[in-house]
Specification:
Blueprint (H helix, E strand, L loop, with lengths): L6 H16 L5 H19 L3 E6 L5 H6 L5 E7 L11 E3 L2 H6 L6 E5 L2 H4 L4 H8 L5 E7 L4 H15 L13 H10 L2 E7 L7 H6 L5 E8 L2
Parallel strand pairs: 1-2, 1-4, 2-3, 4-5
Antiparallel strand pairs: 5-7, 6-7
Bound molecules: S-adenosylmethionine (SAM).
């Protein structure tokens, strides 16, 4: 769902979706695959069906793809906008309400969200999320210098146009990511760099060195 609907946006969105299809720009397939594998493993290790928070869920496209997995009990999406959404296994809860509640989840996933909140503030959000679960799966970007940052900014503009999502000034680099882990008092249980997200032209423009996946656990 695009949040600002007008004719210019609709034309731009139509063209951008077409370009995405023919140039290997489907970002959801590989992300959903890896999140699915990690969730399945967590479910197996804990011998239970999972209650999951999709933090910064957007239109919950990833959760929609995951919801029918047998090992998933429920997925709550949370974001900064007001929205009414409910299916058999999914529901939506605004950020503010989430943080005021004492809801607990087996695991939280945070996909391409932290850089929008701001890499300097990411540790504060992670700490807040630990009140709701001690395990957080994160997918985000690494920048590798100014050109790489500009590419990420361009792709973020392109991917989020019409959603009203801000384009960040900067992204994580490896040093900043380590700092975030330290400041949020986390332990990294899993780390995958060079995660290929796209195919074709999109993979040439924004290749796998720009994507990483991590699992953090509260280290207390
Ligand atoms: C690139 S979209 C990712 C959406 C979804 N996670 C996905 O991967 O399809 C970034 C999302 O982060 C959300 N976001 C931005 N700032 C946020 C905040 N402070 N708290 C929660 N979500 C936030 C935006 O509203 C947006 O839905």
């Amino acid at each position: 769902m695009r949040f600002k609907e007008n004719n210019y946006n609709k034309i731009f969105v139509g063209i951008s979706n077409f370009i995405r299809i023919i140039c290997g720009g489907d970002r959801l397939k590989r992300i959903t695959d890896i999140i699915e594998k990690l969730l399945r493993k967590i479910s197996r290790e804990n011998s239970k069906k999972l209650t999951i928070l999709d933090f910064g869920c957007g239109s919950m496209e990833i959760s929609k793809k995951l919801q029918n997995k047998k090992y998933i009990k429920q997925i709550i999406g949370s974001d900064i906008f007001k929205h009414k959404f409910k299916t058999k296994k999914m529901a939506y809860l605004e950020n503010d309400k989430l943080f005021k509640s004492n809801k607990k989840f087996d695991v939280i996933f945070v996909i391409d969200v932290l850089h929008h909140i701001g890499v300097e503030d990411a540790h504060k959000v992670i700490k807040k999320l630990y009140r709701h679960s001690n395990k957080i799966i994160i997918k985000d970007h690494f920048e590798h210098g100014l050109l790489s940052r500009s590419l990420l900014r361009f792709v973020d503009f392109y991917a989020n146009y019409g959603y009203g999502v801000n384009v960040p000034d900067k992204y994580f680099n490896k040093k900043m990511w380590k700092k975030t882990i330290l400041k949020s008092k986390s332990k990294e249980l899993f780390h995958k760099e060079n995660f290929q997200q796209h195919d074709g032209l999109f993979n040439i423009i924004l290749n796998k060195k720009h994507h990483f996946v991590s699992i953090l656990k509260a280290d207390e």
